[in-house]
Amino acid sequence: MSENKFAPSIEIAEINGLPPLSFAGEKVVIDSAEALEQVLPKLYAEKIWGFDTETKPSFKKGVSHRVSLMQISSLNTCYLIRLHLTGFSAGLKAWIEDAKIQKIGLSLKDDVRELNKLLRIHPKGFVDLQTIVGNYGIQELSLKKVAAIVVGGKISKKQRLTNWETAHLNESQMTYAATDAWACLVIFNELMKQ
Q: Is 39 among the domain residues?
């Protein structure tokens, strides 16, 4: 690899001046075990996906929640799997453990640790952006900053602390969740071009 094209770091003021970066594709909410089984074959149609999870926040000391949402995104479609409603099926476990399918995320050790509280998994094919951005001279590790450096866009984090177990996800929640998984894939693709 020749000279790095990416800045090592970025200031918040600079990020605030960037155009918004937001997923504009199809968002598919999966909220039943039956719907999850129907969508599983589609998850094998692509060999590389953006990946993230969301957990209902807790504002009380000593109280924590399990993963509520798993986001799996291609460039055009994001599957929003409401794990607290669908359960963690054997089929989804098999997909997570399939080494032939790359799942791109950021800070994946946290996602995996929390998913293991639902069902013991042995994840394969996972690529954590935090472990590779340093190879491109990037010193930042947050999704917001890495996206700003690599893609030149600003990701909103306003919905992060919302109730991911609400009866119905609103449009802002769905877009936020889809953007996080999709952005990981977009960043990875951009890095791979270098």
A: yes
pLDDT tens-digit map of 54-106 = 987 655 565 555 889 999 999 999 999 999 999 999 999 999 999 999 999 99
Instruction: Give the DSSP H/E element, type plus range, for residue 71.
Output: strand 67-73
Mean pLDDT of 35-53: 97
Other CB atoms within a 10 A radius of the CB of residue 121 amount to 15
The contacts of residue 158 (CB under 8 Å, 6+ apart) are 172, 176
Q: Model confidence at 35, in pLDDT bands (50, 70, 90)?
A: very high
Domain count, the chain: 1
Pure H helices in 64-170: 83-86, 90-96, 108-115, 129-132, 143-151
Q: Is residue 7 part of a domain?
A: no
CATH no. for residue 19? Answer: 3.30.420.10
Domain extent, residue 103, equals 12-193
Q: Is residue 129 part of a domain?
A: yes
The single-letter DSSP state of residue 61 is T
